[in-house]
Design brief:
- The protein has 280 residues and is of the alpha/beta class.
- The chain folds into 2 domains: 113 residues, HAD superfamily/HAD-like (Rossmann fold); 123 residues, Rossmann fold, CATH 3.40.50.
- It has 9 helices and 13 strands.
- The strands form 3 sheets. The protein has a 6-stranded parallel sheet with strand order 3-2-1-11-12-13, with helices on both faces. It has a 5-stranded parallel sheet with strand order 5-4-6-7-10. A two-stranded antiparallel sheet has the order 8-9.
- Helix 6 links the parallel strand 6 and strand 7.
- It is globular and about 60 Å long.
- The chain starts with 8 loop residues before the first helix and ends in a 5-residue tail after the last strand.
């Protein structure tokens, strides 16, 4: 870890044409803006410096996220927010799910994401053609998952195929002084159950959309329209691994999910820089 240089966020803004910023653990926590975030966003807005939030979420539409961030003192326009929920449209298109019945697990905005993507959201308990496990909130977890796994087993036992889609592959997020489990962790659990029951099938795993997979980075690169990009994030397994795979530089913010003493190992996800905080 010693040979990874530390840098201030102002230096990063000078070195790169556009900043890609993770939201949770970098700009915000559940309770509000993190130290330095408001000053950074102010500065970027004033300087007209291009930046995009790239966030693994399908729980809040960009316009609602923007309103929430404004309440935290962060003036981030909705069009600067790219979420993994926005990847559902292209995903439905390539999987032939446009217009199909989609069981959506998540809060109200998750249903809106699925509608915008061209799917027809149905509530738990009704027949469905595909499952979008959008978020861990917005439904009674164990009861709903009982119903979902029962329905999946019934359809798969009958020889059917049910596309499983996971917009947010994160396993945990920073919650209070500890961590909360996410839809990604619930997906791993469902996959374990299905893998044991159907060891010979290769269609019982979730399609994962967000970071570290390339689609969100591709969307950001398209929005930026070229130039040198740097990803600023707090998770090695999503932000940094994704940036490494996409071939752009990255900075790991200490103190988020990766902690203040991140375990960076040879051959694993490796940031180009370490950032002690957003406050210079
Ligand atoms: Mg994060």
């Amino acid at each position: 870890m010693h040979d990874i240089p530390s840098l201030s966020v102002s230096d990063l803004a000078e070195r790169y044409d556009a900043l890609l910023l993770d939201a949770y653990g970098v700009l915000v926590s559940l309770d509000g803006a993190l130290p330095g975030a408001a000053a950074l966003i102010d500065r970027l807005n004033r300087q007209g410096k291009p930046y995009w939030l790239v966030s693994n979420t399908a729980a809040r539409l960009p316009e609602h996220a923007a309103a929430r961030y404004r309440g935290f003192g962060l003036d981030i326009p909705a069009e600067r927010i790219l979420t993994s929920g926005m990847l559902l449209g292209p995903c439905f298109m390539t999987s032939g799910l446009t217009g199909r019945r989609i069981l959506v697990l998540g809060p109200e905005d998750s249903l809106r994401y699925v509608e915008r993507a061209g799917g027809a959201p149905v509530p738990p308990g009704e027949d469905f053609d595909a499952l979008v496990l959008a978020d861990q909130a917005g439904f009674p977890c164990v009861e709903t998952l009982d119903q979902v796994i029962s329905s999946l087993i019934e359809q798969l036992d009958a020889g059917g195929t049910v596309p499983l889609i996971l917009p947010n592959p994160d396993l945990v997020y920073p919650k209070g002084r500890g961590y909360g489990i996410t839809a990604g962790a619930l997906a791993v659990m469902l996959e374990a159950i299905l893998a044991r029951r159907y060891p010979d099938r290769d269609d019982v795993a979730f399609v994962r959309l967000g970071k570290p997979h390339p689609a969100l980075f591709e969307a950001a690169a398209r929005a930026a329209g070229g130039g040198r990009l740097v990803m600023i994030g707090d998770q090695l397994e999503t932000d940094i691994l994704g940036a490494n795979a996409f071939g752009i530089d990255s900075a790991l913010v200490l103190g988020g999910v990766a902690g203040r003493r991140p375990r960076i190992v040879a051959g694993g996800p490796t940031p180009s820089y370490l950032l002690a905080s957003l406050a210079d």
